[in-house]
Amino acid sequence: MKKEEKEVMISELRQKFSRAKVAVLAEFSGMEVEEIREVKNELRRVKGEFKVVKNTLAFRAAEGTTLQGIRDHFKGPIAVALGYDDPVAPAKALNGIADKQKKLKIKVGVVESQVVDLVRLKQISKLPSKEILVGQFIGRLKSPLYGLAGTLNGVLSKFVRTLQAVHDQRQAPPS
Length: 175
Prior knowledge:
By secondary structure, the chain is α+β, with helices and mostly antiparallel strands. It has helices at residues 3-19, 33-45, 55-62, 88-100, 118-125, 130-171; strands spanning 22-27, 48-52, 78-83, 105-111, 114-116.
C-alpha cells in the first residue's frame, strides 16, 4: 500500500473515530468470511459498522480522537465496531453476536469518550435503547402532570355537581 493510500485511510478512520459515540474493539481470529459478513450486517441493522482495520493505521488514526485511550489494544487481528447514533445498540448487537460466536472476543471499548472494559460493556449492552430511555423519561415527567390534571378535574367536577344540586334544590317545589 502506498503512503498516499495509507494517509487517506488514516484520515477516513480518524473521521469515523471522531464521529463515533461508541467504539468496541474485538478480536476475530479464526472467523470465516461469512461470519464476519453476518457481524457487519447485524451492526449495519442497528446503524453501526464493523471494520477490520490494519493495526498500525488504526493506531495512528486514533490519535487525537476519543479512541486515543485504547490505542495500545490495536494488536493482533482486530476489528472495530462503531456506532454513531445510539451508543447502546451497537454494543448490545456485538455482545449478542459474541455470545453466539465464540471466535469473536470483545476486548475493550469507548462509550461517550470514556474507556470501558468488557464487564462495563456487558452492563451497557443490557440497557434499553436510547429511544426507550427517552420515552421512559418523558413518561415519568408527564405522570405528575396527569395526576394533577386528574385531581383538578375531580375537584372541578365535584364543585359543578354541588352547584347543580344547590340549583336543583332551589328549583324544586317546597313540599
